[in-house]
Amino acid sequence: MTNLQRILNTLDELAPLRTAESWDNVGLLAGDRSRDITRILTCLTVTDATLDEAIESGAELIVTHHPIPFKPVPRITADSTTGKLLLRAIEHRIAIYSPHTAWDNSEHGINAQLARQIGLQNVRPLAPFSADLRAPIDTGTGRYGILPTETSIESLQSTLTKSIPYCQFRHTHSIQRVVQKVGIVCGSGGTLLSLAIKAGCDAMLTGEATYHQCLEAEANNLALLMVGHFASESFAMTELAARLSRLHPDVASKVSKHEHSFF
Ligand SMILES: [Zn+2]
């Protein structure tokens, strides 16, 4: 058992909040820092299912990748989905913390983990943070790097399907096309396509992109590789629970078993 503030300090070391995007809503979103914590549930998103799981397991803290609330809410009532979920968490005295883009961007965060899984070398951020963030030089938005050899999309599909649970691989271009300089943006990375184009990548690995973003990639001769939003991030919440368990052996940290992808 430890108090919430001590867990928050650890989370800030794993995914420093100063590395979150400015538009994001990260950190402690509901809760009392002085409360004791014996159990933590990590998940990608707070839903009725993950809340049920937290309540049933006696978790006092949910670490959710996606923030709730994300946008400012003027009232917390059961009239909206966000309000209903927040109300339920608060009624059960469950604190909510979201590292979101801090976990995407940080030195050993989601994008860095994805880069390692496909064997990228010379890994750099697609958009490095400025020095005034006092962040390590290799943190920033997204990542890109070089594969040791030219690799076909088909071979990357095989690597990703083996290493990422729930992978639902989709791609632009021919599956025989070879790529070597690869950008990485977990989640809805289609919005950051221009960064990968600017970095001279010949492929970008992301969770999801729209039809029009796929067309834009095609027009710029960049292959988009999509594994699904859920698959591109959920493995990292398993990893976060494992890291919390190692750093706080007196607190039971578990990843949600009741989340799923769509399609
Ligand atoms: Zn996401």
Description of the molecule:
The chain contains nine helices and 15 strands. The chain folds into two domains: 2-103 and 233-255, Udp-n-acetylmuramoylalanyl-d-glutamate--2,6- Diaminopimelate Ligase, Chain: A, domain 1; 107-226, 3-Layer(aba) Sandwich (Udp-n-acetylmuramoylalanyl-d-glutamate--2,6- Diaminopimelate Ligase, Chain: A, domain 1), CATH 3.40.1390.30. The strands form four sheets. It has a six-stranded mixed sheet. A five-stranded mixed sheet has the order 2-6-5-4-15, with helices on both faces. Strands 1-3 form a two-stranded antiparallel ribbon. Strand 13 (203-206), helix 8 and strand 14 form a beta-alpha-beta unit. The longest helix is centred in the last third of the chain and has 19 residues, at 229-247. The chain is α/β, with parallel strands linked by helices and 263 residues long. The protein has helices at residues 4-14, 48-57, 81-91, 100-105, 110-117, 153-163, 193-198, 211-219, 229-247; strands spanning 2-3, 27-30, 36-37, 39-43, 61-64, 95-98, 121-124, 127-128, 140-141, 143-152, 170-171, 178-185, 203-206, 223-226, 252-255. The structure holds zinc ion (ZN).
